[in-house]
Specification:
- The complex is a heterodimer of chains A (about 600) and B (about 160).
- Chain A folds into 3 domains: about 190 residues, 3-Layer(aba) Sandwich (Rossmann fold); about 170 residues, 3-Layer(aba) Sandwich (Rossmann fold), CATH 3.40.50; about 180 residues, Thiamin diphosphate (ThDP)-binding fold, Pyr/PP domains (Rossmann fold, 3-Layer(aba) Sandwich).
- Chain A is of the alpha/beta class and about 600 residues long.
- Chain A contains 23 helices and 23 strands.
- Helices cover about 25% and strands about 40% of the residues of chain B.
- Chain B is built from 4 helices and 9 strands; from the N terminus they run βαββαββαββαββ.
- In chain B, strands 5, 6, 7, 8 and 9 form a 5-stranded antiparallel β-sheet that branches.
- Classes of the chains: A alpha/beta (about 600), B alpha+beta (about 160).
- The interface between A and B is medium-sized, with 20 and 19 residues.
Amino acid sequence: MSQDSAELVNIKANPDVMEQVIPPERLSGGDMLLRALQDEGVDYIFGYPGGQALHIYDAIFRQQRIEHILVRHEQAATHMADGYARATGRTGVVVVTSGPGVTNTITGIATAYMDSIPMVVISGQVPNNQIGTDAFQETDMVGVSRPIVKHSFLIKSASEIPLAVKKAFHIAGTGRPGPVVIDIPKDMTDPNILYDYHYPESVNLRTYNPSLKGHPKQIKKAVNLLLQAKKPVLYAGGGVVQGNGSELLVALAKKLNCPVTNTLMGLGSYPATDKQFLGMLGMHGNYEANMAMHNSDLVFAIGARFDDRVTNAVDKFCPHATIVHLDIDPTSISKIIRADVPIVGLVDLVLTSILSRIDDAFTKGVTRPDMAPWWAEIQSWRDAHGLDTDTRLTDKTLTNILPQQVILSLYRATEGKAYVSSDVGQHQMFAAQYYKFDEPRKWINSGGLGTMGFGLPAAMGVKMAYPDAVVACVTGEGSFMMNIQELSTCLQYGIAVKVVCLNNQALGMVKQWQDMQYGARHAASTYANSLPDLVKVAETFGHIGIRVEALSELDTAMDEVFSEKNRNRLVILDVQVDRDEHVYPMAIKGGSMQDMILSRGEST
Amino acid sequence: MKRRMIAVLLENEAGALSRIVGLFAQRNYNIETLSVAPTEDEELSRLTITLTGDDAKIEQVTKHLNRLIEVVKVSDLTDGAHLERGIMLIKVRAQGAMRAEIKRSVEIFKGRIIDVTPRMYTIEFMGNADKFAAFIATLEKKHIVEVVRSGLAGISRGEKALGL
């Protein structure tokens, strides 16, 4: 007996509710899939049709509640869903067909996996009786995606579809979020075979119960260490953004009057304009952030995972510091750096508990070391080599546009309030360094996988979620061309993102490494003579393009991009920037966090 | 570096084993032996994995196994006293004087000859890798025709048990 009929029997036994009995709807597999997505509250599907997904697409067509956005390449669908998820915290949804449809999503799934982004990817598969026969457009999607998903399902019976959808969203969105694949053979969505539809209200997986509150003993230890530390640093990552812990992070920093640094993924989790903010840390992190880490006596890592782009040489990492590490994922703890105090739990619950224990300690009259000497030390680093000390950025006599100046201009024109997506490379680092994010979920970038081509579709996903928001994509001409076809999608759905292209006519970050480590031999990193005219590209796709070549024109052009007149238009701002600029500071390979190249020819 | 034996209870679902094997490949952990079979509960399979690693590595392996959705329980059997058994079937050339000599060795090592032809013995041993290696060392290479070893199955001693 199915669960549905069991409930019916119960209701029938009670004459008072007899009249309310509604027989379960009879739906096909395809319609059950769409109904389950509706019941899950999905508002957008990003996707691309194909043979084995056609039953699903027909079901999409025959319903009104979910809007489907047709991309031009499946990779972009995943990045759109990803951008949507990063900006909203809700799970992004992708539908694609089998074979090339799913293999094209792999980069996007891996991107979401590395950055712990909730996403559900639904893929058509060849009919069950053809699986394993090398059928047309057959790919073992569950196998191909296995190392880059949080979990995956291959539907073996259409009646499983509602429960699989429920499980997929539960797994994708809870604990450490991540992408989940549901692979559906075409015969499971056959419109002619109907089933009782029932969407489970909740799901209980006996093998999946993320630890939530943190161990009280470890929390107590962490609080004691925080109260005793003379040189504490809060090192906050993407987990604070994902775990909605920003306000609590600010509260903790304020209570302790201690400095905060963010990882690339954590930017926005602490207001960048606050004086306690040290900026980003790591390979291209701020001098003061890296120096503070290296000299600290207590590092409290919150939703961060000691990525190699942060730590530099692991054996030289923070030699004087006790490490307290809070993360929802036990595998992140003591993976790279041994945690002295590990805490497995949700950022918001654990920080709430830590804050209340600190309050208790203060009420009991516990005193702390004076933070003034630590702040004085930090100030000396800021004064010596902080980002603001680069006098070139305000030098009006220079004619070349420095890429940093473009970010500063963008920040000014958007009053620091835009959603900013980025691609990957130098422009990404400049955006991370110079756009001061005061709020979480506004900085949308591929941190872990470093996926070029992410920026435009991710910005589109953000714009779909928040149509009235200002959404800018900071990109380079290299990254931009990796998903440039989506300009057509933008026209179809009126997605008015603004593209700010830092055009240095080369693969800037590759070229920088070649300058620094390969005797300036620019192997396969230049293509200046074959680049398209991005203004014409914009126009041919039905959008607006503006080119800027002189510093004096930059602000005016930037203002035009974000003008009221262009509010509903996609505008590409092609800024011809200095071709030789490098990103600094830059960690010296094999060194500790305090070992940095500060500018051309200047090291710590 | 220590040799470890890890027991895993796993949902008996299609593709679950591939996630375990994939995890070891993906994270650069080497499996020495692996055995897997359904348990008395038809919804569950039990795996026994042996591998070598330092404490930090084994901790990561254990945590990553636990992170897989289909994994129900993970236990490091080498944390306490435990029993382990594997099986080795070995086919050897046994002719002339060798027939009696091999038979004596099999008795010493508590094996059993389970199939006989005029030129061959097929012998069964129960035990662990050390025992198997010791027996093989008694033979000259030219006498060994074929060796097949199962993965090890492990269980804790005493009252301790791995269950739901």
